[in-house]
Amino acid sequence: MTSPIDPPDGNWWSEPVNRRETIWLGIAGAWSLFLFSWMSGWVRAGDQNPTGETYEVSPEQFREKVNEYKEAAEETGDGYVPADEHVYVAGQRFQWDGLPAVLESGTRYQFHFSSYDVQHATNIRPEHNLSAQMNFDILPGYEWVVPMAFDEPGEYHVICSEFCGDGHRTMHGTFTVVDGG
Ligand code: CUA
Predict the structure, then answer these.
(1) Once rounded to an integer, what is the mean pLDDT over residues 21-25?
(2) Is the separation of the CB atoms in 161 and 91 below 8 Å?
(3) Does residue 68 come out as left (phi exceeding 0), alpha (psi in the -120 to 50 range) or beta?
(4) How many percent of the chain have pLDDT more than 90?
(5) 47, 53, 86, 152: which sits with the fewest CB atoms below 10 Å from its CB?
(6) Band of pLDDT at residue 14, cut at 50, 70 and 90
């Protein structure tokens, strides 16, 4: 069988590497090392640690907290109106416990995020600009408390942005933010 491609001449596989190629390989190697160490450096120098605090909590304990929160909240057609500045949201396959909720703009809330089963991510987006978003990865066993205020009233979608199973795309909730004056 003949090949339509002509083989290169001579012992092409045993030629020494061209000096320029060696230099490029060196530059690429040094740059990779620089980027790799900068990942670690930027976490420290760039103040990249996530805001808020985390606590260990079992899914059962967190479910109790969410139930207490929902009992204390006022239930309206648009969702739960929290009794105080604490807001609880739990992810589970495939819905959000604690949502929908009605909040006020300008009020600084303590958002408590956790999961009952697997890793989810609470992704919050204003309806008028869905590409503006905040994302909180949530894990079973940990409660993440994030202090946060909504500047503007409006409808905010809450979706799951961590693939969690065949109903992942149906995990949808809302924050309705009313004018807090
Ligand atoms: Cu929960 Cu994807």
Answers:
(1) 96
(2) no
(3) alpha
(4) 78
(5) 47
(6) confident
Rounded CA gap, 40 and 101, in Å?
A: 38
**What residue ranges line ligand 1, CB within 6 angstroms?**
91, 120, 160, 162-164, 168, 171
- CA-CA distance, 77 to 79, in Å (whole number)? 6
Q: In which band, very low, low, confident or very high, does the pLDDT at 1 lie, cut at 50, 70 and 90?
A: low
The answer, yes or no, to whether the previous bond of 100 is cis (omega within 30 of 0) is yes
How far is 181 from 168, CA to CA, in rounded Å? Answer: 36
This prediction has a pTM of 0.75
CA 163 / ligand 1 centre spacing (Å): 5
Residue nearest to atom 1 of ligand 1 (CA): 120
The total of other beta-carbon atoms located within 10 Å of residue 14's CB is: 6
Helix (H, G, I), strand (E, B) or coil at 45: helix
Share of the chain above pLDDT 70, in %: 98
Say which residue the tokens 């160490």 belong to: 37
- Cβ atoms of 135 and 153 within 8 Å: the answer is no
Checking phi first, is residue 152 left (phi over 0); if not, alpha (psi -120 to 50) or beta?
beta
Under 8 Å between Cβ of 90 and 98: yes
